[in-house]
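Weekly puzzle thread! Below is a chain. First person to post its structure in token form gets bragging rights.
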Amino acid sequence: MALPHVELFTDGACSGNPGPGGWAYVLRHPATGKTREACGAEPDTTNNRMELQAVIQGLSALTRTSRVDLTSDSKYVLDGLKEWLAGWKRRGWKTADKKPVKNQDLWMALDDLMGKHEVSFHWIRGHAGHAENERCDQLAVAAIEALRAEGRVGRRA
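Winning reply:
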């Protein structure tokens, strides 16, 4: 039986790096046309952590094993998944230079989720008019602004 097919579009944003950050995803089921969006924010984080969090949250939203087309503007996330992850695991979560992997907690969570789905990777240029990427960026930035409105972070110049 064929796996259900979904499209996952993700983005992360940071106001300062580090600083308050937001993540977002758009999850689309092409067979039904149904779309789900979600976003969130953290008061003190980095852009790379938000890019990773967007993918983690999107994959976590899936209730069944699926065939996932992951589209992101983050070479960090896509290169990590395609090229670096296997080596990090082989080396006990160390880089080729024998240094600890940055964001190991998120990479480990993502590795676990990747084992549950068939994921293919698609890179797009950010801020280049790709509708779903632009929507994710809007949601991530709005999540940061919501943190500010709640008074959970200060304004940066």
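Puzzle host: Confirmed. Bonus trivia for everyone else. The first strand starts at residue 5 and ends at 14.
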